[in-house]
Design goal:
This protein is α/β, with parallel strands linked by helices. It is 38% helix and 14% strand. Strands 1, 2, 3, 4, 5, 6, 7, 8, 9 and 10 form a 10-stranded parallel β-sheet that branches. The longest helix is centred in the first third of the chain and has 15 residues. The structure holds S-adenosylmethionine, 6-(5-methyl-2-OXO-imidazolidin-4-yl)-hexanoic acid and iron/sulfur cluster (SF4). The site of 6-(5-methyl-2-OXO-imidazolidin-4-yl)-hexanoic acid has 17 residues, from strand 2 and strand 7.
């Protein structure tokens, strides 16, 4: 007797991806890949909706880590001056401005290797204040201990961003002051505290397609897929080891978005850093291939991002609107 045919729904999340399967997705004919990603996108999301986050660097520069892409590492001369942790009131005022500009989530970033307990009260005050404005809250503060993750949750934190950055085999070419396992441990603490996870990486750092597949494999085989999955195109920073990296081909970037959408079908995939250098057409292809989030406001952490009017025009032209509002982009952004 023949074995029964198993109908596998490609839109259902899977956690048993093999690296080779993900590599095979990258190898698919471009049009087929984008079509499949777009179809999966439509199974879980309204494809006209885009989630809008805004960043603020609440503690800039002087970081002890040596991430080869980063303007804020104390190991490299990048011209970014180190500053102290901002006052909570100043951060809350910036968040109110971001909300008025159309942001839905406010993400506070600190150039720290890890969160120190002495900074927790001030960070908790920022989070509570931003949450009280009616914004979703996100923070990215480096490594966390389980009890710190819980304290952030108690303060009103919704999301914690902690990226795996690249595939495990390429990781030590990018950073040597921490391990992949360190990142995975913090992500476990974040999940265990009941926080939503924001986890992705960077492309355009000289990695191979296999490394890019390796990053998506690591993400898709986590105990829970990231809720938000940022794909950053490297913002090359003069003075860093990766400052002269060759830019990734635009269509290869779209493949990265499409494969992310397929392997983590329910994640909100963010077209993150690097939009400043992308044409409208390339961004449109990314949204078609399953991206449904972006950073708004003219600045990321230390580098620039398209301004409010440019993004409002882009969203209007593409018929996109802020997620969950049912309102046209021009009315909100
Ligand atoms: N220090 C914390 C950490 O590394 O987890 C939080 C801030 S860090 C700047 C957040 C993330 O921004 C990094 O993990 C990296 O993925 C991304 N990033 C940093 N510099 C970048 C660059 N030049 N281009 C693209 N993405 C970048
Ligand atoms: C993420 O994945 N990208 C954001 C956020 N998480 C913290 C940061 C992008 C930083 C780009 C370089 C800069 O502005 O310094
Ligand atoms: Fe520090 Fe984060 Fe920059 Fe790495 S990416 S040097 S941990 S601020």
């Amino acid at each position: 007797m023949n074995a029964p045919i198993r109908h596998v729904d490609p839109a259902q999340p899977r956690f048993d991806w093999a690296l080779e399967e993900i590599e095979a997705l990258f190898e698919r004919p471009f049009m087929e890949l984008v079509f499949e990603a777009a179809a999966i996108h439509r199974r879980w999301f309204d494809p006209s909706e885009v989630q809008l986050s805004q960043l603020l660097s609440v503690k800039t520069g002087g970081c002890a880590e040596n991430c080869g892409y980063c303007s804020q590492s104390q190991h490299f001369k990048t011209g970014v001056a180190a500053s102290k942790l901002m006052e909570a009131d100043t951060v809350i005022a910036a968040a109110a401005e971001a909300k008025a500009g159309g942001a839905q989530r406010f993400c506070m970033g600190a150039a720290w290797r890890d969160l120190k307990d002495r900074d927790l009260p001030k960070v908790a005050a920022m989070i509570s204040g931003v949450k009280a404005l009616g914004l979703e809250t996100c923070a990215t503060l480096g490594m966390l201990k389980p009890e710190q993750a819980q304290a952030l949750k108690d303060a009103g934190l919704d999301y914690y961003n902690h990226n795996l950055d690249t595939g495990p085999d390429y990781y030590d070419q990018v950073v040597t002051t921490r391990t992949y396992q360190d990142r995975l441990d913090t992500l476990a603490a974040v999940r265990d505290a009941g926080l939503s996870t924001c986890c992705g990486g960077i492309v355009g750092m000289g990695e191979t397609r296999r490394d890019r597949a390796g990053l998506l494999h690591a993400l898709a085989t986590l105990p829970a897929h990231p809720d938000s999955l940022p794909i950053n195109d490297l913002m090359p920073i003069p003075g860093t080891p990766l400052g002269d990296s060759e830019a990734i081909d635009g269509l290869e970037f779209v493949r990265m978005i499409a494969v992310a959408r397929i392997v983590c079908p329910k994640a909100v995939v963010r077209l993150s850093a690097g939009r400043e250098h992308m044409s409208r057409e390339l961004q449109a292809l990314c949204f078609l291939a399953g991206a449904n989030s972006m950073f708004v406001g003219g600045k990321l952490l230390t580098t620039s991002n398209p301004d409010k009017d440019t993004d409002a025009a882009l969203m209007a032209e593409l018929g996109l609107r802020p997620m969950g509002t049912g309102t046209s982009a021009s009315a909100v952004v």
